[in-house]
Each structure stands twice: as structure tokens, then as C-alpha cells.
Write a structure and sequence with these properties.
- The chain is an all-alpha fold.
- Helices cover 86% and strands 0% of the residues.
- It has two domains: 3-461, no CATH class; 462-522, no CATH class.
- Helix 2 packs antiparallel against helix 6.
- The two termini are 12 Å apart.
């Protein structure tokens, strides 16, 4: 792989990764006032509603950005600009139909879900109705983002994500505050609080759609000029194009559906089993809120890097694979995996050591002790999910579309059995969800790696990707632990102590990484 090709892959991946981190940091920051406004019970309702929303997104639009990106990239590798335009038009119409149907089903089915599926979550039908139109908006948004990613341009996606999250934060805080002030003493107060928070999601998605739409209009003239000069494309009928879109999106959708449905089943199992044990709705929502609003939220911040790198690497690997340049494919896989682990491994160590102190500062009204214990138990999930996400994207790039689906299905069965047994036979409560959350990607990642090796003979580089990075992260963890708890023993100011510990963590990780030349060899 040429240095220029590798640098471009990492540059585009870095753009999305930085945007992903900014988005998740904004998300974490705005969840602090929202969490304090709507409380543990409101957070539990919000998290449960959002899991259904995520499932609706997966069904309607999750596969579209990656599928459109893959198809556009493969077309451009052969200079088939007319075909890429047809892919865009067909994908937009596909998104409108599927997104519209799923959005309508969620809106009309809100009362049914609240009454028969989520009976332990008071007022959950309210956020369902707000999230329904968001499903339609995001479906169209995903197609346009995939179009740009297929051209190897991650900037529109990155910028739109940041604008989306800023609007999301402002509207969520404002709407939650207004609705809780008005309905805070209602029996459905938690539902109204969650409804306010989900309003931000809707307005944020609409803002992002406007941003990428303007970006497309800006470059539309040049794109159409390339289309008019194209003599390489074959004329593909629209019915065949829709079949191609469906064949590309369906495996991606199914693979992610198994992951998201595990979260939905977790919520349902948690509510039903704890109710059978005699716990009330307030306790169930509260414990679910700690798991979703603390553990999952904190874990998702570094996981955003893996998602960004998976999105950015897919079109590049597809381009090299289409042209049968296998040395480039190997080089790109190595670079993406190393860069990913460079973030995931120290993040896992950092969450283990500083998770509880950070939560106690950010979420003083929530049960940060339990949240911190969950992070200590399940911090390795960052590494496991990073590997499973990247390897799933690699298999999709290699036209092994159904393999991640099969692997996710196997993992889902194991996950549901494990969580059910733990909830029924132990008193672990939320910790059972953490164990299930952490083990789900272990099966997927392991099976993915085996399939990649079987398909193209790729062997993952271990020494610098894992061992050396892990040793640097371990050194960082020991230094950070000593400094933080040493200052705590001296009764230093909590915020100052955390700030010093974080500076020590950065220096003691990147210092050894640079000394061993582990960064420059990505």
C-alpha cells in the first residue's frame, strides 16, 4: 500500500473519529443536565424508548450509509458515474418508502408497545411518538451521507454530525426542562421528561439533513458533469438497482438488528423478571437508567472511534478489493486495526480506573457508585466492540455480507440465554446486563477474525497492535491510579485531582507509545 493511500485512509478515518468523539462528548455533557432534570426514572424510560428507536433505525436506514458508500465506491473504482447517480436516486426513493413505513408503524404502535411490552415504563408512548418522524428523516440523511463517504469524503458526515448533536443538546435540555416544569407531578412525569429529551434527537437530525443537503447542492454541478461524460457505465434498470440495494443493505441491517435487539430484549427481560421478583416500576426504571445512562453512555464514547473507522475504511477497502490489490487490502486492515486499538485499549483502562470519579462529578444525582462498579466490571467491552465493529466492516468490504449476520445471530442466542439465567438465578440485576453487553461482541469478533483469515489469509498483527499498546496502557493505568488516589488521600479538590490525573494519563500513555515508535508505525 502506498504511503499516500494509507495517509488518506487514516486522514479520512481521523476526521470521522474526531467528529465522533466530539459528538459523544457533547452527548455526555448535555446528558448531565438532562439526567438531573428527568432523574433516574426518566432516564430509564428514555433509554428504553431509544432502544426501540434504534431498532427502528436499523430496520429502516442503518444499512443505507454503508451500503450506498460501498456501492458508490465500487462504481467510482470503474469510473461509472451514471451508475453512481442511479444508485443515489434509487437509494433515496428506497429510504423514503421504508423509512416512512417504519416511522408510521412506530407512531401508530406507540400505545400498544407501552401497554403490552413496556408496561413497567410509565409514559413511554410519549417519546415513541416524537421519535417516529425522526426515523423518516434519518433514513434520507443516511443515503446522502453514504453518497459522500462513497466518494471518500468524510467531511460532510463529520460536520453534519457535530451540528446535529449541538442542536440535539440545546433542544433536549430546553424541552426536558419545560415539560418537567409543566408535568413534573404527573403520574407520567418520566415519560414527559423522556419526550423532551427525544425532541432534541428529531430537531438534530433535521438540522443534519439540511447541512448535507446544502453540501450536495454545492458540488452537484461537478458531479453531473462527470455523469454526462461517463461512457463506462452499463444501463442498469431500476428494478435491478433496487434488488442490488436490498441485497447490500439487508445483511448489514440483519447484523446490526441482532445487536440492537439484544438491547431491546435486555430491557424487556430486565423489566419482566424483576417485576416477577416483586420489584416496582420505579426501581426497575431507576436501575435500568443507571445501566443505560451511565455505563452504556460512558462506554459508547470511545466506541464512536470504531464506528467512524469502520465507516471510513469500508469504501477504501472496497476500492482496493475491487481492483484485486490484496497487499493494499492487508495494509489498510492493519492500519485501521492498529489505530483503533490505540484508542480502545487505553480507553478501557481509563474507564476502569477513573470511571466512578468522573461519573460522580458529571452525574451527582445518579447512582454513580453502582455506575462506577458497572464500568469496572465491563470496561473491556470497549476493546471487544471495537474489534467486532471493524471486522464486520472488513467482511462487508470483502463481499462476505452474510457472515457478520450469522455471527451476530449466534452471539444473540448465547447473550439471551446468559442474561436470562443471570437475572433469574442471581441478584446481579443491572450487572447481569453489563456481563451480557460485554460478552456479545466477544463471539462476533472472534468468528469475524476467523472468517477473514479463512477468506483472504490475513493474519492480524499482534505485537504492536495489542501487546505493546497494552503495556503502554497498563503503565498509564498504574501511574494514573497512584496519582489520583494519592491526591485523594491528601484531600485535594476533586475537580483539580481529576484534571491532574487525566493529564498524567495522557503523558504516561503517549510518551511510551512515541518512545517505542508505535504511533508513527500505524
Amino acid at each position: 500500500m502506498s504511503e499516500r493511500t494509507k495517509n488518506n485512509l487514516l486522514r479520512q478515518g481521523t476526521i470521522l473519529a474526531i467528529a465522533g468523539l466530539i459528538v459523544r462528548l457533547i452527548g455526555m455533557i448535555y446528558r448531565i443536565p438532562v439526567g438531573n432534570i428527568i432523574g433516574d426514572e426518566g432516564n430509564g424510560v428514555y433509554a428504553a424508548a431509544f432502544n426501540i428507536y434504534n431498532l427502528a433505525l436499523i430496520i429502516s436506514s442503518y444499512g443505507l450509509p454503508m451500503a450506498v458508500s460501498k456501492m458508490i465506491s465500487a462504481s467510482l473504482a470503474k469510473n461509472e458515474y451514471k451508475k453512481s447517480k442511479k444508485i443515489l436516486v434509487a437509494s433515496l426513493s428506497f429510504a423514503c418508502v421504508v423509512g416512512g413505513v417504519v416511522a408510521l408503524a412506530l407512531f401508530l404502535g406507540a400505545d400498544f408497545l407501552a401497554r403490552y411490552v413496556y408496561s413497567g415504563y410509565a409514559g413511554i408512548e410519549l417519546p415513541f411518538r416524537v421519535l417516529a418522524p425522526t426515523v423518516f428523516i434519518v433514513a434520507i440523511l443516511g443515503v446522502v451521507r453514504g453518497f459522500f463517504q462513497g466518494h471518500g469524503n468524510m467531511v460532510p458526515t463529520a460536520i453534519s454530525q457535530i451540528f446535529e448533536q449541538i442542536v440535539n443538546a440545546v433542544v433536549s435540555i430546553g424541552a426536558a426542562w419545560i415539560l418537567m416544569k409543566e408535568f413534573g407531578k404527573s403520574t407520567r412525569a418520566a415519560g414527559y421528561g423522556a419526550m423532551g429529551s427525544t425532541m432534541g434527537t428529531c430537531f438534530g437530525a433535521l438540522t443534519a439533513l439540511v447541512v448535507v443537503g446544502c453540501w450536495y447542492l454545492k458540488g452537484r454541478k461537478k458531479f453531473l458533469q462527470n455523469v454526462e461524460g461517463d461512457e463506462a457505465s452499463e444501463d442498469v434498470p431500476y428494478p435491478q438497482m433496487y434488488r442490488l440495494i436490498l441485497a447490500t443493505t439487508l445483511p448489514i441491517i440483519l447484523g446490526q438488528t441482532f445487536y440492537q435487539i439484544s438491547a431491546v430484549f435486555d430491557d424487556i427481560l430486565f423489566g419482566k423478571i424483576l417485576a416477577m421478583k416483586g420489584f416496582g416500576p420505579e426501581y426497575i426504571s431507576s436501575r435500568s437508567g443507571v445501566y443505560n445512562s451511565i455505563y452504556v453512555l460512558m462506554i459508547s464514547i470511545p466506541m464512536g472511534v470504531a464506528t467512524a473507522l469502520a465507516s471510513s475504511s469500508l469504501p477504501s477497502i472496497v476500492h482496493s478489493f475491487t481492483q484485486k490489490r490484496m497487499s493494499e487490502v492487508y495494509g489498510k486492515i492493519n492500519s485501521v486495526m492498529k489505530f483503533n486499538m490505540m484508542i480502545a485499549i487505553p480507553s478501557s483502562v481509563g474507564l476502569f480506573i477513573l470511571g466512578e470519579p468522573v461519573i460522580s462529578l458529571l452525574f451527582p444525582r445518579l447512582d454513580y457508585v453502582t455506575g462506577g462498579a458497572m464500568l469496572r466490571l465491563g470496561s473491556l467491552a470497549v476493546i471487544f466492540y471495537a474489534i467486532s465493529t471493524i471486522t464486520s466492516s472488513i467482511l462487508q468490504s470483502l463481499d462476505q455480507m452474510m457472515k457478520p449476520v450469522i455471527h451476530s445471530a449466534i452471539s444473540l442466542v448465547i447473550h439471551l440465554v446468559l442474561v436470562s439465567v443471570l437475572l433469574v438465578s442471581t441478584d446481579l440485576d443491572g450487572y447481569a446486563l453489563v456481563i451480557g453487553y460485554m460478552t456479545f461482541p466477544v463471539v462476533v469478533g472472534g468468528l469475524n477474525l476467523y472468517q477473514i483469515r479463512k477468506s483472504i489469509g490475513y493474519r492480524m498483527e499482534v505485537k504492536r497492535t495489542f501487546l505493546l499498546t497494552g503495556l503502554c496502557a497498563l503503565f498509564m493505568g498504574l501511574c494514573t491510579f497512584a496519582v489520583y488516589y494519592g491526591l485523594v488521600a491528601l484531600a485535594f479538590n476533586h475537580i483539580l485531582t481529576l484534571g491532574i490525573a487525566l493529564v498524567v494519563a495522557v503523558v504516561t500513555y503517549f510518551g511510551p507509545m512515541m518512545a517505542f515508535h508505535n504511533i508513527e508505525r500505524i
